[in-house]
Amino acid sequence: MSTRYAVPDVPAYLDACDTVELKAVLTEAEGRQAARSLGFDIGEALTRHVYYLDTPGLALEAAGVIMRIRQTGDVGADATVRIRPADPAALDPELRRRKGFHVELDMCPDRFVCSASLKTRLAGATVAAAVAGRTPPGSLFTPRQRRLYQAYAPHGAALDGLSLFGPVRVRRLAGAARGWQHQLAVQLWEFPAEPVLELSSKVAAADAAVAVARWSSFLDLHRVIPRLFRHTKSQTALRASAPRAAYG
Question: What is each CA distance from 156 to 60, 159, 199, in whole angstroms?
């Protein structure tokens, strides 16, 4: 279903967030057309391979815990623990002050969703060994990330016993676009059944009110009408492939 961007009220806890990410998701055909209008050539995109960890029954997803592993060509890789939705007021103040801990508000066409995440950079070879099952998935995450996982994961969901989902190939570009003063990212998620293209822009919380007000006008300028999809990208990725044992 398509919709014009109905800007929701900015939540009162915006001041507790580091950034706001504005998003518009399109079908592949619509997205490719929008990318051309914006001056982006998908053929020049970097390729990422994105994996997720969860139980076969998706218990982490149900608990609001996202475990993501990404590898971007020869450029590098990263592993992220994300809690979504997250209540900024309920987060551990000590954890909140840690370097690398990030609280973000995702703006969708009809709502905001707050998330909290902790990301670490990895060597590509480390990810390759883990996704091949030669090393346990827990080895990709720092002790601080593992503590965050343990605080929110459902009982019995041991990190090294999780299943691996993916990879999903993602083609990504970022740069300037006419009519928008912030960097714009273009990502084509090549899901087997229904690829989607996402336009997104991260802005500092201090700039969010102005950016939110201008986002719909920017999309209108380029005749972009976002679609409403039933699942988020991570939810779709978890349903796009059969789980396999991550280790052992």
Answer: 11, 9, 37
